[in-house]
Amino acid sequence: MENFDCVVIGGGMVGAASALSLANLGLRVAVVEQFKPKEFAKEQPLDLRVSAISLASQHLLTQLNCWQQIKQWRTCQYKRLGVWELPYAYTEFNAKDIAQEHLGDIVENRLLQLALWQELNSNQNIFLYCPESLVDIEQSTDNVIVTLSNSTIATKLLIGADGANSKVRQLAGIGITGWDYQQSAMLINVETEFSQQDITWQQFTPSGPVAFLPLPGQSELGGYASLVWYHSKAEIKRLASISNAQLTSEIHQYFPKRLGKVKVIDKASFPLTRRHANSYQHKRILLVGDAAHTINPLAGQGVNLGFKDVKALQNVIASAIANGQSWHSDTVLGGYEKARRHDNLLMMSTMDALYTSFSHPSSLVKFARNLGFLAINKLPLINTQIKNRALAYACGVTLTE
Ligand SMILES: Cc1cc2nc3c(=O)[nH]c(=O)nc-3n(C[C@H](O)[C@H](O)[C@H](O)COP(=O)(O)OP(=O)(O)OC[C@H]3O[C@@H](n4cnc5c(N)ncnc54)[C@H](O)[C@@H]3O)c2cc1C
């Protein structure tokens, strides 16, 4: 039976980044993934699944030698972030306010994964098992035996990076707390009348937010964008069943006028759920990314939290190796959980507070929250103390006083 230092189940964005960062520390790592990512070609249409990649995540991807490749393929940089409910309380966050050139880039998930896979393929410490999938695990004090569909391997540490419905988490008997938001989100790729923009925006409405994320390239109409439409499950089901031409017409009625004219190219919908694993590590098994936490996608933080997990894991293991400690001991892995649990919980709770506050029907609450936005805009002290700090936190940068 082949033995590894680490076996990572799931070669998605977070799993692939975890594997690379640990292989770069000199560990022998196996990656088990069901599906191989498709090669890139310029003429391929833009994928529906896109993420707003923060500056901190870009830093990690640069360190893993992937960011340059992703930029060469295609991304759309954004410098401004607009948020509002009522037009008078429109608030804009700007990269300049936190001394940065941009706030992040919108990137297709599959390109992120593909760039990481290029590095996996050329790393001598990495062994790919694909297409393969996890069947069972057997934990002991010395190792974990991992049964896959076509082979059995052993490892000192098993990392579950297998997404929201993690089989690793279930087989390890790690419970979750969470709930269903009773809402769905529809992702819609559109051609836009306006050419590529440097702003991403979100308007809160009583039935849920609508969001605009700019995408790269020129279309027949002008540019491209990804729209996110949050609504009740029933309404999203209805929207999913109508033709692209009908959906285009409903977008024109429902979205704010600043969107301009659009033409729907493609669409897909996802239920919104919140899940948090009760523990991130248990007897040589460790969870990262969506296997450990799923968050309301309101502020586009999901994969960014996953990349923060990767960085924290790399830090604790690197420092254990440097100090001659057993890098897979409970104490070291407990350090990873300590570094990440509070931060993930804070971000999840902040998103929930925003979500709940903006779906509150009371006109008094509505007035209060728009007053809050107005104060953030107009009062210089609040502006620098709250607005810029919140922005720096979301982008993963430290503000210099
Ligand atoms: C509507 C919506 C919008 C979003 N927008 C954003 C955004 O703007 N910014 C952002 O940061 N995040 C966003 N997210 C969240 C983001 O997509 C996730 O956080 C991210 O995909 C998690 O990455 P992951 O690698 O942990 O898991 P996944 O992407 O789910 O990858 C898991 C991998 O494991 C593999 N796998 C699963 N089971 C097995 C098995 N048994 N054996 C082998 N392999 C297996 C799968 O094939 C997959 O490749 C959004 C989510 C939603 C629903």
Automatic annotation (TrEMBL):
Molecular-function annotations in GO: 3-demethoxyubiquinol 3-hydroxylase activity; FAD binding
Biological pathway: Cofactor biosynthesis; ubiquinone biosynthesis
SUPFAM superfamilies: FAD/NAD(P)-binding domain (SSF51905)
Coiled-coil annotated spans: none
UniProt keyword annotation of Flavoprotein present: yes
Every FAD-binding domain range: 5-341
InterPro entries: FAD-bd, FAD/NAD-bd_sf, UbiH/COQ6, UbiH/COQ6_monooxygenase
GO biological process, one term: ubiquinone biosynthetic process
Similarity remark: Belongs to the UbiH/COQ6 family.
Protein name listed in UniProt: FAD-binding protein
Organism: Litorilituus sediminis
